[in-house]
Amino acid sequence: MTQSTDYGAMESAGPGLLRWSRRPRPTPADDQVLLQVEACGMCGADVSDIARPGASHQRRVPGHEVIGRIIDRGINVPARWQVGQRVGVGRLGGHCNACAYCRQGRFALCTDQKVLGVSQDGGYAELMLATSTGLVSIPDEMESTAAAPILCAGLATFNALRRCCAAPGDTVVIHGVGGLGHMAIQYARRMGFRVIAVGRGNDIAAGAIELGAHHYLDTNHADAAVELQRLGGAQAIITSVGDAEAVQLLLPGLAAGGTLVVLGVGKTPLSIASGYLVGGERTIQGSITGSPDDSERALRFSELTDAMPWIECLPLSQAQQGLERLMSGDATFRIVLVPDEQASTRESNK
User: Fold this and answer.
1) Which residues contact 32 (CB under 8 A, 6 or more apart)?
2) What residues contact residue 277 under an 8 Å CB cut-off, 6+ apart?
3) β-strand partners of 21
4) H or E element in which residue 197 lies
5) Per residue in 230-262, pLDDT tens?
6) d(Cα 173, Cα 255) in Å, to the nearest integer?
7) Where would a tag sit more exposed on the chain, N or C end, judged by fewer CB atoms within 10 A?
8) Three-state SS annotation for 75-123
9) Is residue 130 helix, strand or coil?
10) Terminal-residue alpha carbon distance, the chain
């Protein structure tokens, strides 16, 4: 069979807009592989990536929850990555192995990190180049469509829960029941925490309980912080909400010695009295997604505990419709793009 000389991709065409393009088939650099994309999750961060100003981003391909097969490899790619192998790439697309943080083994903080959808083309495409240091092994038992969202939504919340200093039996709040929150609830339940989901509106209450939350608090009808105090306070609050005011209103529910872990990126700063931190020895920390090793741990944990994303599959050609649903808030948890020829055989997973 003749190898195609080009491939299709959805590229940025301005804020909220994607367009279909044909591109020449790329040849991987010495440290790169070429992937045939099998699945790519759609993330809220994609909306911001597509809206980025500047000519360099107008043709950027978004997408950072990518699963694909290696179909070509550079001469310096380690032998563990072979043609035909199924791999993944998350938001952090490959560390440099040379900067101060890489020398410390803190690869997620690399100062020359490739960032899919920003500094490097992502997975809204039939083919994608990937740097070998960013590659992730995918469990044989896991479907590509299920694995894709774990590389961002799953990994971010998995690492946040691992690092939040809560112990089994402690109360942990998941603030925001969306693409990240629905994975956080499942992970927190399986890690042995008492899980309190906090969201806005009763329409997601049943889903939060089905995912594993012990309680759901609707901020439209209750003061969540007061309710948390009544329950003894939260040892950790994991928030994926970018609204600083909403996070601040929840903070009084944090127990002494507790930790707020911030995943949501907002435009306004958090305003917190220093006495609240000092007097109760409370901590605020940010958490990035994680390294390829972290991704593989999250995938294994998901497989072992059956903590899987709730997804809806769309063909790549309908990425614009998926983007519009992300922007309007109509997307339920995670949309995953698949090649058009596979879309008819895929079903939603819930």
Assistant:
1) 73, 74, 77, 129, 130, 131, 132
2) 283, 284
3) 9
4) strand 194-199
5) 999 999 999 999 899 999 999 999 999 999 999
6) 11
7) N
8) CCCCCCCCCCCEEEECCEEECCCCCHHHHCCCHHHCCCCEEECCCECCC
9) strand
10) 38
